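Obj.: predict assembly geometry.
Materials: sequence records (below).
Method: joint structure prediction, all chains together.
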Amino acid sequence: MNNESYDDMVKKASPDSPLLKDCIRAFAVGGLICVIGQMLTNFALNYGLDERGAATFTSVTLIVAASLLTGMGLYSKIGKFAGAGSIVPITGFSNSVTSPAVEFKKEGYVLGLGSKIFIIAGPVILYGVLTSIIVGMVYYFAGR
Amino acid sequence: MEYLRAFAVGGLICVLGQILLDKTKLTSARILVLFVVIGCILGGLGWYDRLIDFAGAGAAVPLPGFGNLLARGVKEDIDTMGAMGILTGGLKAGAAGIAAAIVSAFFMAMVFRPKEK
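Observations (raw structure tokens):
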């Protein structure tokens, strides 16, 4: 699956429905995922994790849950309804990793699963880290 | 109130993504990249943490929250170890999320078969 076919997948998920309807759905589902995240955070805080631990617990739980839903073929159904509401939360990142992993296992463990797993995550990690290094340089030389 | 703020802010960030998806030629992959980069820049400026103070998971769970995490990690590592922190901070802060995503994906690929489209 390349970028175009991932995009096709999403396009298919939201067939030319009007912008307002798309936005309401994205708002509702994206908001709901964040509420679940807040519940997980509060749950972890109540169990004595510090703020950082709770934040990590929250993202990891959401990531694994979205990965499982992707494997079961359910996340794409949510995506059909929610559009960006299922792409923009961290669960969408997880979906973009698991989806090609499942699809390309048949092409082998190294150049199939192993490389295609990063087809979306790779650019996200690359440009994220690149930006963080620029931020770090500014902070180191000018910001402190 | 806390849940309402998380819902509203998280939902709005997703609406931004939906508008980009519908009104521009940006692919969803590019939106993922763009949101992480924007979050990282806003995090570098120290603005995104204020949004998290207000909205909690509503700001932390969407992808700009991941970018913010990278920026925060870089600053912390610079504070503790100096210039080398510029290189280490980002990936270190993102490590849990990236590791969880790829390892979980691996196991799902073991268990499940691709669904017919």
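Conclusions so far: The longest helix of chain B spans residues 85-111.
To do: check interface contacts against the pulldown list.
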